[in-house]
Design goal:
Length: 334
């Protein structure tokens, strides 16, 4: 009748019966079952039972301490989690509550600017001002004498291209085209085209941080590109006080920040290249009065930085002037 544990079938039954324990060093299950008259044997069994039931006090304490130790660890874990949460919450709140600085612009110099130049990209490199212009059939890349606005050298783009942002990378000038998905590469001395890259989506502004090219496309995302392959290295979402900032247009890397003017707005965002957070806004309202603008599309669109003399230049589409400006703190925004 008994299957599990029966002597002859033990191995087989252990596999079939989960309740079968490991092989014990067994004593008779019932001392009474021992052949009755052997008193010494009974006494030995009784002593063993007593030993088995009489656990050393040290072991008892250890077992009683287990729940306390578990409780202590649980409390410590809870406090650690609460502490971490509090620190993270504080950092988040500080980040949220630190508004960008507002700068006003003090005009240092005013230079002439070609009113036929639909400015899309501006760069100052080793004493030379480079400008890229847009519009189908009118797009150009040019070198300009800063002080007079005189065009020193110029190439016209194929009429199928709408020129956009430019940057100088090593001995080359790279110029984006709006929706053509093509970046044109020129020798920066001769302005002869000697290469091209392709990219997905639109091309608006272009600059670099000394390591990667940085490109805007009218959205709130900047793309960091390998300058030798144009492959996307990373993307940066630009936000100000929790809100995404769209229409990022002409770019310039200034110090350790990315400057981006916002399409159809007279202000420049100063962006952390690490976090994408706007750390400051440059207010340029009134820099060029409306009566000096040829039409509604004559908007701010051109930032260049002379890193050697630490001069900052701005202009716009068909603006008659190019401004050298100095930043001064206006107020903390609310
Ligand atoms: Ca620029």
């Amino acid at each position: 009748m008994e299957v599990c544990g029966s002597k002859d079938s033990r191995t087989e039954s252990r596999e079939r019966c989960p309740s079968v324990p490991d092989e014990p060093a067994r004593e008779p299950a019932n001392a009474d079952a021992i052949d009755g008259s052997d008193g010494d044997r009974r006494a030995e069994i009784a002593m063993k039972r007593a030993k088995r039931n009489d656990k050393p006090a040290q072991n008892v304490e250890r077992e009683e301490a287990k729940p306390m130790r578990k409780h202590w660890w649980r409390s410590l874990t809870v406090w650690c989690l609460m502490g971490t949460g509090a620190v993270a919450g504080t950092l988040w709140a500080l980040n949220r509550e630190t508004p960008p600085v507002i700068y006003d612009a003090e005009v240092v110099n005013v230079f002439p600017h070609d009113t036929s130049a639909y400015s899309q990209g501006l760069v100052f490199d080793n004493g030379t001002l480079y400008e890229g212009t847009g519009q189908y059939g009118e797009s150009t890349l040019r070198k300009v004498r800063l002080e007079t606005g005189e065009v020193l050298q110029m190439v016209k783009l194929n009429q199928k291209y709408f020129g956009e942002g430019i940057t100088v990378w090593e001995d080359r000038v790279i110029q984006l085209t709006w929706v053509n998905g093509v970046a044109l590469v020129y020798d920066k001395t001769s302005l002869k085209q000697n290469g091209r890259f392709s990219y997905s989506g639109q091309g608006w502004g272009l600059t670099h941080d000394g390591r990667n090219l940085i490109m805007s496309d009218g959205s709130s995302t900047l793309r960091f590109l390998n300058p030798r392959t144009f492959d996307v290295v990373r993307r940066l979402q630009v936000r100000s006080e929790g809100r995404r900032i769209r229409d990022l247009n002409e770019l310039e890397y200034v110090g350790d920040q990315i400057f981006a003017n916002i399409w159809h707005q007279d202000r420049i965002a100063c962006i952390s290249p690490q976090s994408g957070e706007v750390t400051a806004w440059i207010n340029l309202e009134g820099l060029l009065p409306d009566q000096e603008r040829v039409d509604a599309e004559a908007v701010l669109n051109g930032i260049a930085y002379d890193s050697q003399a630490r001069r900052l230049f701005v202009t716009g589409k068909n603006w008659p002037k190019l401004f050298e400006i100095r930043l001064k703190t206006h107020r903390e925004s609310n």
